[in-house]
Amino acid sequence: MPDLLLELFSEEIPARMQRQAADELRKLVTNALVERGLTYEGAAAYATPRRLALQVVGLPGRQPDVREERKGPRVGAPEAAVAGFLKSAGLASLDQAKIEKDKKGAEFYLAVIERPGAETIEVLADLLPAIIKSFPWPKSMRWGAASERSDSLRWVRPLHSIIATFGPETETPEIVPFEVDGIKSGDFTRGHRFMSPGEFRVRRFEDYAMSLERAKVVLDPDRRRDIILHDAKDLAFAHHLELVEDAGLLEEVSGLVEWPVTLMGSFDESFLAVPPEVIRATIRVNQKCFVLRKQDGTLANRFILVSNIEASDHGATIVAGNERPIAARLSDAKFFYETDLKTELEERLPKLDQIVFHERLGTQGARVKRIAALAKELAPIVGADPEKAARAATLCKADLVTEMVGEFPELQGLMGSYYAKAQGEDASVANACYEHYKPLGQGDYVPADPVSIAVALADKLDTLGGFWAIGEKPTGSKDPYALRRAALGVIRIALENELRLPLLRQIALVLFRHAEDMAKNLVDEFTPLIEANIKAAPGLEQDMIELFLGTEGIIRRFGHKLGPDLAKRLSTAGRDLLEFFVDRLKVYLRDKGARYDLIDAALGAVALADGEAAAPLQDDLLMITKKVEALDSFLATDDGKNLLAGFKRAVNILKAEEKKDGPEAYAQRHAPNLRIEPQEHKLAAAIARAGEETAERLKKEDFADAMRALSKLREPVDEFFDKVTVNAENADLRLNRLRLLAELRRVMMGVADFGKVAGEATA
């Protein structure tokens, strides 16, 4: 079957755009083919710095013929209906239509439309120009005389030629004839810009790929990447060194060359006094080169560069051309580093008051004070020394105003750690300056040192609380302040370090301090409400904690100190932020393989008191996670599955009866003297025992044991439904048995909302 070869040859395509552009070209062309009834066996797209290429294999030679029957109006219908039918079906008169009968015997017109399929090459000639003209480059340009026209072709860089051939393997393929903005399709391309710049003719993909290889162009970006990695490792090994691998840099460099040639350069050993991360950043960012290390793991004064040419001097000039700017950059970095070391971090803190973190959230200086206060309070919870946590938090942002971080922003935190160690800070304090940013992403590590944990939590909670206080929450796919990542960081730190973190209390403190800072700095719409009331209120901080933890009654009690509107808004913000954490926890647990319904069930447990259920906010992430794990294990057992079935049966009965009688009818406890069947006595005793045992286990937070206590209900529940008629003819017996089932529901709901399992809602 025929194949399609398409190449779009242009000036340099930015490396960051190449893979996405190749994938986009493949999808656009293959989707357009399928829409026109042309299926294919396979498709692959490729990119180099100067070309996008596409191979589509196994296309048919022509479109399939199409036969369509279109039902029209009944015979004798008004002329307007008949005219509309003829026009839509493309018929000149009713003589071209058939008359058919429906099941009731009524006659109607039927148009049979037959369209022969077009030759595939004709279809390609029609669809390819439209795809090229509308190609979705992130950035594009016009060029030459045609750029004066608004309808001229836009491309990432000037487009020079187009190859478009179509045909079977056994024959010479045809050129797909079309033109885009004066550029006609053909079968000529060019090789390497310097080593083989001449034109040559190609036919199909195999011929094209081999011809490019002879012309010093490696078409496949994955192969270029593998060549670079293999040759770089071999070159390093030959000098008794190891390559410091960098997947991102490797991807970028493979998009900068068509014929990769690895070379080794060096720099003065004196620069090794600079932190290795600085050397790596300098060489990576400015020259796109790889660093090397010695066998003992320390950095070597060598680097690997990737050239796009086989030079006659074996690369000596190219290496020298890279060594000079690297030496200059490292000299600057060494100067910045040595200059920074002359000023201690604490002396830099006043400059943070001049850096705005966010126009409505104040400066970095104010933020550091909040983080330090919160880190000190978190320290006992996470097992850290409060003074060390406060010290680390105070210094953690100081490197933002250093020369080195000004030059390399990606080194913030890391440089703070180096400078803290150099000035003699405690090792935990110095490490926390770097690790408080962790984890930065899903694959990043979580800090384990208690001081780092305290500062990392404080930093992330302050960020989240601040943006919630001003109503700047993530919406849809938009999250400009990376708040989802911050919340996931808190979750991972808590769970992976098995921390019991009273999250709502911390949220309350963060919101309170943000409100305080807003008042002090006269920003945001809360100012008139806060400024008049906040400063003169003794003990307000503890009141605010109670406020955020409390109900509307507590809001009414303390709200006058901030103004009722502000109090309610901040209380709402606190609860809303907690719900955001819970949503993020669900995503995290689902990614770990937990069932969504079990997460909802674990969160849906209610506290019981004298028959009344109150649903508190659950803010202990570790407790929620352990409950999900225990619930999953319990429901995997036969006892768990059967008890769940009995629970749902009870709930369904209650749901039906409560619609008639109202839920309050079954809120009271059942009457023991109205139990007449032995199965009723057995179930009542089992419910009472399970209630006591689960309450005791839940106090100890032993969820697995709480589930085992529930499992004892399985047999009496099964026997009750087998032997007892719930809706008895005697009204008193019926009411008593329904109240007994309501007690069963309450006891089980005290552990988890079993009605949420498998997505079903409780009554």
Protein model, in words:
This protein is of the alpha+beta class and 763 residues long. Helix content is 51%, strand content 13%. The protein folds into five domains: 3-61 and 119-214, no CATH class; 67-115, no CATH class; 221-341, no CATH class; 359-581, no CATH class; 594-759, no CATH class.
Topology:
Blueprint: E1 3-10, H1 15-35, E2 42-48, E3 51-57, E4 66-74, H2 79-89, E5 98-101, E6 107-115, H3 120-133, E7 159-167, E8 174-175, E9 179-180, E10 183-186, E11 188-190, E12 199-201, H4 205-214, H5 221-238, E13 242-243, H6 247-254, E14 261-266, H7 276-287, E15 290-293, E16 299-307, H8 316-341, H9 345-352, E17 356-358, E18 362-363, H10 364-382, H11 386-395, H12 403-407, H13 414-422, H14 427-435, H15 450-469, H16 483-496, H17 503-520, H18 527-533, H19 540-549, H20 552-558, H21 564-591, H22 596-603, E19 607-609, E20 612-614, H23 621-635, H24 638-661, H25 678-699, H26 703-711, H27 714-723, H28 731-749
Parallel strand pairs: 7-10
Antiparallel strand pairs: 1-3, 1-7, 2-3, 4-6, 5-6, 7-8, 9-10, 11-12, 13-15, 14-16, 15-16, 17-18, 19-20
Helix pairs in contact: 1-3, 5-6, 7-8, 10-11, 10-15, 10-17, 11-14, 11-15, 13-14, 14-15, 15-16, 15-17, 15-21, 16-21, 17-18, 17-19, 17-21, 20-21, 22-23, 23-26, 24-27, 24-28, 25-26, 25-27, 25-28
